[in-house]
Amino acid sequence: MEVLSIVLCIASIVLFILGIVFIALSVKKKKPWKQYLFFFLAAIISFVLYLAIVPYDWDAPRPEKSTEEETEEFQAVINTTKEPNTTNKPTEAPTTAVTTTQPTTVPTTEAATKATTETTTKKSLSIKDKVQAAAVDNFYGKEIIVEYDENKKIATITSTSETILSAKSETKFIMSDMYCLLEDLQDDNSFGIQFYIYFPVTDAYGNTTYDAVINAYFSAETRQKINWDGFLSENLPIIADSFNSILELYDYIY
Fold this sequence. Notes:
Elements: H1 2-28, H2 38-53, H3 67-82, H4 108-124, H5 127-138, E1 143-149, E2 154-160, H6 167-184, E3 192-202, E4 208-218, H7 220-225, H8 236-239, E5 242-245, E6 252-253
Parallel strand pairs: 2-3
Antiparallel strand pairs: 1-2, 3-4, 3-6, 4-5
Helix pairs in contact: 1-2, 5-6
């Protein structure tokens, strides 16, 4: 029982920390985070079980002091009363050294110059470079290819993943990735964005191929209509100029 109680205590702490870490990462990447609340639930259950199997024995006999210990304590009290009272003696006030430091001020011109430089650099980037930076930041851990057609004013993003857990969970992550990328590029709605999302899919015969399980297109006009203060990622298929998904057609997906 002692080993089990230690395991439950450690498990509750680890699950609580994992819940905080995963939720923090999801919030930072603007991805769904509610599914990680089960870490906190598991931590609470583990801690309750720990308390249940390790009750405190309130009726346990407390160790009694020996006669020698009582005699030594009594003698210490007598010796203390015999010591002269020195509390009324004047004491010298402690001297404290006060060090004054000159407040340091950061020139505002340096911060302003840095902000201006970053803004100028961002504006000087080409559309392809902007889309490439946003894709790398949001489609984390996936192979990304970005192309831009200057004549059609369309940026094409091709994302390829090596593994897939389930159609349901991956669809949520993909929606979140596309949502965050479109939001990051809201300052420039002069071009359309085409998504091709590739995953390895396995058919009933065991043959695995890389298919574009999701392809979606958002024109410049559609992007200009989005109000990011109230827009939700689950509405992406509704507002898209075209949106096709074949995830639900496969029973076996890696």
